[in-house]
Structure formats: structure tokens, C-alpha cells
């Protein structure tokens, strides 16, 4: 290192303390070894569809991340990015998390910011740390990074917020970022890492009904991304729409959404099972909500081109009936269940 840069590290060490200085040491050691000095944690992303279960799940009591339907994002790249050594036993304690948050807040080095966000996000996958990070004032520190011009930093900040959002109390603080996340998701590049990270966060934030109303003005945009995105994007949007579709208070907003007629092609037999099952469940959920006593007692006027006209038109009915002969048993079972209720 040059003299000026070395003096900078000394100053950083005096300010941040031994814990944060050790993080910097591991980071610089990884640089000198060409980026191979730090280990990775395994991906624990989840997303299995379960009927009657929201596409997300609020935190349990286990200290370790659990498999299941909630959306957790772990570091998963060929390049080392976590500032710890990647072991399950390397979960940071409260003091270390405080130093990491100070490091994240005080540095302007984009490489350190990104790696600190990944380390924080990985630690936020553990339920005990979700509360600690909130109590240390960490949510606004992470939330401010979603404004960063560096797209990779923005993505890592969204991933960290996503893991933190598994905790109900954390959602109260994270909800202030929902509008901005929506704007980024719908105005940014299609199928980008930032878009997917934003969709995952919105999915977790809509597991309960508490914050779903904040997406009311973005429903048509969600369907647009659904129809234009690739397979991964389609699945992620559908996970979010399924959360909304289970809430009777969101039914009218969903049915009013202006949706291109190509939406019905998602009910074709050749569509991937993970997409087909979800669009069938979307229809099922909406239909169930319409049947709730007293809901939409005075039927609103739905305009032509709305989701209502697509779902309750003859073309959709024909497509669903045809799926009774689908090769997959799960699809056939889902169709039979729907047809018994319409």
C-alpha cells in the first residue's frame, strides 16, 4: 500500500475499532489474493408454492435460516463477497454487527459497501439478528443504500432488506421504502438483478395484509412485468400477485387492472408448471374472494380490457377446462378443484 492509503487504514482502524478493522483486513487480504481469500455461504433462497400459504413467511424462532416458502436471499456468486469466512458458526454478535453498521455508514468505498451489505444480509437471515439489527438502528442505514447509483450496491441493499423483512416488527420500519422499491422495479431494466431483488422484498412485505394497500397503484404495472419478463421474473411477480389475491380487500383492485389479452396465454398447456400452477391459483384465490359473503355486494363496473373480463370470459373458461387433460397430476388436481367452485 502507498503511504497515504496506509495512513487511511490506520485512521479507519482507530475510528472503527478492532472488529471493523478486522473486516477491512479480510477484505484487503481477499483483494491481494485476487478475490479468493473469503468463503461463501450457501444460497438459501426459497419459493415453493403451497396452496393456502402466502408466497412468503414471517420469521420463526430458529436461529438458523429455514427452508420454506419465504423469500430469503443469500450471497451466491463465484466470487467471495462475505466479510466472514462463510461458516454457519460465523454469525456476528451484537457488538460485531454494530461495528459492521458503522463501517457501512461511514465508508464511501463501493467495494467495502457491497461486501458489508452482503455480510449484513447473510447475518439478517438469522431470526435473532433481525431484531438486533433493528434495535441498533440498522434498517435506515441499509435502506439508504437503495438510493445508491451503483446497481450492484442497490441490489445487495434490497437483498439485506428482504432478509430483514421476514420479521414483522422490521416491516413497520421497512414499509417507508415500498414506494421507492416499486418505482425502481417498474422503471428499471427488465429481468435485472435489481428488479428481482425488489420483487422479492415486495413479496415478503405482502405476506400479511398490513401493507398490501401500498401496492394498489402498481397492480397494472405488475401485470405488465409479468407478461414481458422472463421465466424467473414471471414466477417472482406471480408470487407477489398470489399474496395480494388472498386478500378480499385487494380483489376489486386486481380485477380493475388493465391487462393485455396475452395474459390468457399463461393458461396454455405448454406453459411451465411453476407458472401454470400459480396462474391457476391466482384465478382460484380471486374467485374465492368474490364468493365471500358481502364482498362486492354491489358489483362495480369493470371496463373492457380489465383482468375481470379476461378471467371471466369464455376464452379463459375454455383454457381452464382443457387443462383437465394435462399430463401433470398437480395441474389436473388444481383444475378440478377450481371447476368444482365455478
Automatic annotation (TrEMBL):
Pfam families: Arm_2 (PF04826). It is a single-pass membrane protein. It comes from the Eukaryota. GO terms for biological process: negative regulation of intrinsic apoptotic signaling pathway by p53 class mediator. Gene3D superfamilies: Leucine-rich Repeat Variant. PROSITE patterns: PROKAR_LIPOPROTEIN. Keywords: Endoplasmic reticulum, Growth regulation, Membrane, Mitochondrion, Mitochondrion outer membrane, Phosphoprotein, Transmembrane, Transmembrane helix. Residues 92-311 form the Armadillo repeat-containing domain. Its main location: endoplasmic reticulum. May play a role in cell survival and cell growth. May suppress the transcriptional activity of p53/TP53. This is Armadillo repeat-containing protein 10. It comes from Aotus nancymaae.
Amino acid at each position: 500500500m502507498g503511504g497515504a492509503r496506509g495512513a487511511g487504514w490506520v485512521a479507519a482502524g482507530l475510528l472503527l475499532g478492532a472488529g471493523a478493522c478486522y473486516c477491512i483486513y479480510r477484505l484487503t487480504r481477499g483483494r491481494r489474493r485476487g478475490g479468493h481469500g473469503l468463503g461463501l455461504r450457501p444460497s438459501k433462497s426459497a419459493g415453493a408454492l403451497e396452496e393456502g400459504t402466502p408466497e412468503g413467511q414471517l420469521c420463526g424462532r430458529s436461529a438458523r435460516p429455514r427452508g420454506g416458502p419465504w423469500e430469503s436471499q443469500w450471497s451466491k456468486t463465484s466470487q467471495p463477497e462475505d466479510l466472514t469466512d462463510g461458516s454457519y458458526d460465523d454469525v456476528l454478535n451484537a457488538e460485531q454487527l454494530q461495528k459492521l453498521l458503522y463501517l457501512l455508514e461511514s465508508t464511501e468505498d463501493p467495494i467495502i459497501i457491497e461486501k458489508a451489505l452482503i455480510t449484513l444480509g447473510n447475518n439478517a437471515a438469522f431470526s435473532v439478528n433481525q431484531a438486533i439489527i433493528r434495535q441498533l438502528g440498522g434498517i435506515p442505514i441499509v435502506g439508504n443504500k437503495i438510493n445508491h447509483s451503483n446497481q450492484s450496491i442497490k441490489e445487495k441493499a434490497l437483498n439485506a432488506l428482504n432478509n430483514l423483512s421476514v420479521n414483522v416488527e422490521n416491516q413497520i420500519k421497512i414499509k417507508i421504502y415500498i414506494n421507492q422499491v416499486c418505482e425502481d422495479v417498474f422503471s428499471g431494466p427488465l429481468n435485472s438483478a435489481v428488479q428481482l431483488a425488489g420483487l422479492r422484498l415486495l413479496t415478503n412485505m405482502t405476506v400479511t395484509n398490513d401493507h398490501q394497500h401500498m401496492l394498489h397503484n402498481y397492480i397494472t404495472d405488475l401485470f405488465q412485468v409479468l407478461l414481458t419478463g422472463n421465466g424467473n421474473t414471471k414466477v417472482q411477480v406471480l408470487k407477489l400477485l398470489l399474496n395480494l389475491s388472498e386478500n378480499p380487500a385487494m380483489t376489486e383492485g386486481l380485477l380493475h387492472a388493465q391487462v393485455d389479452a396475452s395474459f390468457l396465454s399463461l393458461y396454455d398447456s405448454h406453459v411451465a408448471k411453476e407458472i401454470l400452477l400459480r396462474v391457476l391459483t391466482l384465478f382460484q384465490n380471486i374467485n374465492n374472494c368474490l364468493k365471500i359473503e358481502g364482498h362486492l355486494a354491489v358489483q362495480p363496473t369493470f371496463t373492457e380490457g380489465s383482468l375481470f373480463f379476461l378471467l371471466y370470459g369464455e376464452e379463459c373458461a375454455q383454457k381452464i377446462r382443457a387443462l383437465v387433460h394435462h399430463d401433470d397430476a398437480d395441474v389436473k388436481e388444481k383444475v378440478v378443484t377450481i371447476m368444482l367452485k365455478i
